[in-house]
Design a protein that fits this description.
about 150 residues; about 70% helix; 6 helices
Length: about 150
């Protein structure tokens, strides 16, 4: 991985992890899988970038909530997947949407969404990972970005 990509990931990680959850419209959110299905015939190049942003944000946010066995099991795998998603996002970005400000803003929005979903589910059931959007998105992002031998 190029040094510029590593620096960008480091900057974005530091920024995103310092953000407090905002009141985003979580109830209007569709899963990544549904978004991909709805966009399958679209020639819009920003669709791949959107999925990359969503997966990057998901892994960044969910890594914050890992504990114990989950932390040992998923932290390295998710870190690698996040890097793959971020690299894909940068690679798919047009020049005007590859600025650090734009990318940071998009990841902030999506990070807030996942935090709100996780916190609401944790308050409701005791386990934020039970949220149906989070569960579905982790599965979809895993299929796309986790490299298994």
């Amino acid at each position: 991985m190029r040094i510029e990509t590593k620096v960008l990931i480091g900057i974005l990680t530091a920024i995103v992890l310092s953000i407090n959850p905002a009141q985003s419209s979580a109830q209007d959110t569709i899963t990544i899988d549904k978004f991909i299905s709805q966009s399958r015939n679209s020639e819009n190049s920003s669709n791949g970038q959107f999925v990359g942003f969503r997966c990057t944000s998901l892994y960044m946010t969910m890594s914050v909530y890992l504990e114990g066995d989950q932390l040992r099991k998923f932290s390295w795998e998710w870190s690698q997947a996040m890097q793959n998603a971020m690299f894909s996002t940068v690679f798919l970005s047009s020049e005007e949407s590859s600025s650090t400000e734009y990318m940071t803003g998009q990841i902030e929005i999506m990070n807030n969404l996942y935090q709100n979903l996780f916190i609401a589910e944790r308050e409701k059931t005791g386990n934020g990972f039970n949220n149906k959007i989070i569960k579905s998105d982790l599965k979809t992002c895993g299929k796309i970005f986790i490299r298994r031998n």
